[in-house]
Each structure stands twice: as structure tokens, then as C-alpha cells.
Write a structure and sequence with these properties.
Belongs to the class-III pyridoxal-phosphate-dependent aminotransferase family. HemL subfamily. This protein has 428 residues and is an alpha/beta fold. The chain is 37% helix and 15% strand. It has helices at residues 4-16, 71-81, 92-104, 117-132, 172-175, 186-195, 221-232, 251-256, 282-285, 304-319, 323-344, 370-374, 378-390, 411-425; strands at residues 38-42, 45-48, 53-56, 110-114, 136-140, 153-154, 164-165, 178-181, 200-205, 235-239, 262-265, 276-280, 350-354, 357-361, 393-394, 403-404. The structure holds 4'-deoxy-4'-aminopyridoxal-5'-phosphate.
Length: 428
């Protein structure tokens, strides 16, 4: 495929935007090469600036669960835009989407809308601290909760010591309040709780991890976390920015039948516009301003265009009784097809999948946490990525990302993808 125009556009962008992109992973640093500039997208396909058609397995990193330019969402946005794009005052549509979200998601009474997943997680942690009166949080290595300071933390020296900043600009003072645990390792979490008695406000995690590839929670991991939280007066925060309205109508809480105390949303809930949200039962949400003392605000929060897109999206998901079955079946079909062609070509691999989240790892061992994800063969992944791109299939430009399956994919698209994997597998 020819990427002449994308290359030229990237050079221009680099002059005025750091690294040519507004979010780092887009720059293809992990895989090398020139990022593809998108011109438009429809259904399961991206059309780039060079006129290439790509089957899209990223779908804006999750939101486009029904495909690109989905008509009911686009129509809702156009209709709203004609009536004014922002007021900074209450609008009825905010109540409509909140009512629907509260109906769909288990165990929440109230929801507050923000503008990104980062804001949702940052605010959820503040609320947990305000509610419990404690400062420390536990997060898991390899889980991503956005780029706010408390989350840009890596493991310090020794399993039970404080975290350390993993970006310049994050202070030691912030880092000392974030404790790092291994995903799927409940004993590690117990150690951290024992070493910091009565100090931990919350445990935040992706109930299915999607930022180190797709990693399912081990059996009982979520249940054991719930019990630990109950025993130690710690709030359990599910970051459902990826899993919310994707793994089930009610997200991971519904799929695994575990209640979290605070739930964070992003991606699907905005239908492709900038929306995040966090939600909890009344007892917790009453601590939030203006009801309570925990401050949180936003000029564009509840923006009418964003709410129109989100409401149209949630309505479609709510009304389509077969959506999650179809997504599950399509993803299982893809999983089986890819596994067969990789196996037929003797490519060492592990595939992880939960619902419509799936990832391919070039390693023979199970991928259950950050360390096992990191030991996959990155050179093979790079070849896999570029090979697929050349065949017109767009997956995330990093081995640490999950693929997001959209309902717009037809079985012909899936067959085309599996055939492309077959072509690429011969070169690995
Ligand atoms: N949480 C999770 C689980 C995410 O995957 C992401 C983004 N990929 C975020 C939070 C941050 O969301 P945003 O990029 O909208 O700030």
C-alpha cells in the first residue's frame, strides 16, 4: 500500500504538534514507521488520506462498538449542533442519559459526566479519598487509568514499598500515595494492605485489563478483591472505561456479577465524542460537590453534543437484545480463525479474549499480568503489525493494546482478516 500523503502530512504535523500527534501511541513509536492519517470512516472501515481502505480493529480505542459514522449517533449530533453547542447550564438530555445509564449499570444510583476517561478515574479516586478519609491507593502494574499524576506510577524497590514516578513532572510526594500490585495476584494485594493498615482509600483496576493486551481476571480475583475491600473499609473502583457498555449492558460488574463501589466510564458512553463519567450509590455520590465537600467540575461537562451522541449510542445498545451475543460470536470466530492460521504456520502465540476484547501475544506462556505481557516477542509483533497494515488490516500500533471488535464487521470482513493473518504468518 502507498502511504505518500500520510507521510507528508506527518512531516507537516511534526512542525507544530509534539511528535506530530495529540496522544503518544498514535505516533507508531512502538512499531516504527509513519502513522496513517485518516480521512474518514464508515462502518468497519477506515479510509486514509492515500485512498487506502483499512479494516479497523481499534475503533477509536473502543468507542465505535457499532461502527464508524453510525447513523443514529451522527443524526443526534447534527440535530443538537444546530441548537447551540455549549451552554454551561443544565439541559434535560443530561438527565435522560443519566437515567438510562443508571438503568443499564448495576449498583449505581447517580452518575457524574466529565470529558474523558482520565478525568473520570482521577475524580473517582478523589471521591474515594474524600469518602474514606484515607490517602493511599492501590493500582495494578500494567493497568492504565489515564494520565493524571496518581496513576503515572511504577513499582518502587521491593514489593511493599511506595511507588515511584514514571514520568518527569510527577512528584515523589504524589508517588508515595500510590501502591503498585501485580494484576491477578491477590496475595500481593494482601501484603500491601497489611503493610499499610488503615491507610488505603481504594483499589482501582480494570476488571478486564485492556492496556497490556487483553488480560482476563483470574477466577475469584475480583471476588477476592471485593472481600478484601469489605474487610478493610476500602472502596473498590472498577475502571470500566474500556469494559463499560462493551462486555455487557452493565459492563464487567454484570458480566462477573461483582459490585464495585465506584465505576468509571469513557469511550462507548460518549459514542465517539469526548465523554467520561463516574458513578456510585447515593451514599458515596452525596460526598460530591455541590451536595458534599469533594470538589469536581467542568465547563464542558455534560456538553449537549457529547450527551446527544452518548444517549443515541446507549439507546441502541439498550434496545438491541442480541448485540452482545453477536459481538461475542464474531470475536470467537476471529479468535478461532487467527489461532488456526498461526498454528498452521508454526507461529508461537497466545490469544487472550473476553467478549469483544481480544489480543494476540507472541509468546507460548499464559499472559496474566504486566510481566508476562512484556515478555512477548516485540520484533514479531512489529512484523505482524506492518504485515497486516500492508494487507489492509489496522490493529493497534503496540503489543500492549487490545483489539476492539465492532458489530459493523461482517463475517466476510473477518474472513478477509484471517486470510491476511495467514499471509503475514508466513513472514514471521
Ligand atoms: N482507563 C482506561 C481503562 C483506559 O483504557 C483509558 C484510555 N485508553 C483511560 C482510562 C483514559 O481515558 P482517556 O484517554 O479518555 O482519558
Amino acid at each position: 500500500m502507498n502511504y505518500t500523503r500520510s507521510s507528508a502530512l506527518f512531516v507537516k504535523a511534526e512542525q507544530v504538534i509534539p511528535g506530530g500527534v495529540n496522544s503518544p501511541v498514535r505516533a507508531f513509536k512502538a512499531v516504527g514507521g509513519i502513522p496513517v492519517f485518516v480521512k474518514e470512516a464508515k462502518g468497519a472501515y477506515l479510509y486514509d488520506e492515500d485512498g487506502n481502505r483499512l479494516i479497523d480493529y481499534i475503533n477509536s480505542w473502543g468507542p465505535m462498538i457499532l461502527g464508524h459514522a453510525y447513523k443514529p449517533v451522527v443524526d443526534a449530533v447534527i440535530d443538537k449542533a444546530k441548537k447551540g453547542t455549549s451552554f454551561g447550564m443544565p439541559t434535560e438530555i443530561e438527565t435522560h442519559i443519566a437515567e438510562l445509564a443508571v438503568t443499564m449499570v448495576p449498583n449505581i444510583d447517580k452518575i457524574r459526566f466529565v470529558n474523558s476517561g482520565t478525568e473520570a478515574c482521577m475524580s473517582a479516586v478523589r471521591l474515594a479519598r474524600g469518602f474514606t478519609g484515607k490517602d493511599k491507593i492501590i493500582k495494578f502494574a500494567g493497568c492504565y487509568h489515564g494520565h493524571s499524576d496518581s496513576f503515572l506510577i511504577q513499582a518502587g524497590s521491593g514489593a511493599v514499598t511506595f511507588g515511584a514516578p514514571n514520568s518527569p513532572g510527577v512528584t515523589q510526594g504524589t508517588a508515595k500515595d500510590t501502591l503498585l500490585a501485580r494484576y491477578n495476584d491477590i496475595e500481593n494485594v494482601k501484603q500491601l494492605i497489611d503493610a499499610n493498615p488503615n491507610e488505603i482509600a481504594c483499589i482501582i483496576l480494570e476488571p478486564v485489563a485492556g492496556n497490556m493486551g487483553c488480560i482476563p481476571p483470574k477466577e475469584n480475583f475480583l471476588k477476592d478483591l471485593r472481600h478484601l475491600c469489605d474487610a478493610h473499609n476500602i472502596l473498590l473502583i472498577f475502571d470500566e472505561v474500556m469494559t463499560g457498555f462493551r462486555l455487557a449492558k452493565g459492563g464487567a460488574q454484570e458480566r462477573f456479577n461483582i459490585n464495585a463501589d465506584i465505576v468509571c466510564f469513557g469511550k462507548v458512553i460518549g459514542g465517539g465524542l469526548p465523554v467520561g463519567a463516574f458513578a456510585a450509590r447515593n451514599e458515596i455520590m452525596e460526598h460530591l460537590a455541590p451536595l458534599g465537600p469533594v470538589y469536581q467540575a467542568g465547563t464542558l461537562s455534560g456538553n449537549p453534543l457529547a450527551m446527544a451522541a452518548g444517549l443515541a449510542m446507549l439507546r441502541e445498545i439498550h434496545n438491541d437484545k442480541e448485540l452482545f451475543n453477536r459481538l461475542e460470536e464474531k470475536t470467537a470466530y476471529l479468535h478461532k480463525g487467527i489461532a488456526e492460521v498461526l498454528q498452521a504456520n508454526n507461529v508461537v502465540h497466545t490469544i487472550n479474549r473476553v467478549g469483544s476484547m481480544i489480543s494476540v501475544h507472541f509468546d507460548k506462556d499464559p499472559v496474566v499480568d504486566f510481566d508476562s505481557a512484556a515478555k512477548g516477542n516485540n520484533e514479531t509483533f512489529k512484523k505482524f503489525f506492518h504485515g497486516l497494515l500492508n494487507e489492509g488490516v489496522y490493529i493497534a500500533p503496540s503489543a500492549f493494546e487490545t483489539w476492539f471488535i465492532t458489530d459493523a464487521l461482517s463475517y466476510e470482513d473477518l474472513d478477509e482478516t484471517i486470510a491476511a493473518v495467514g499471509v503475514v504468518a508466513k513472514t514471521l
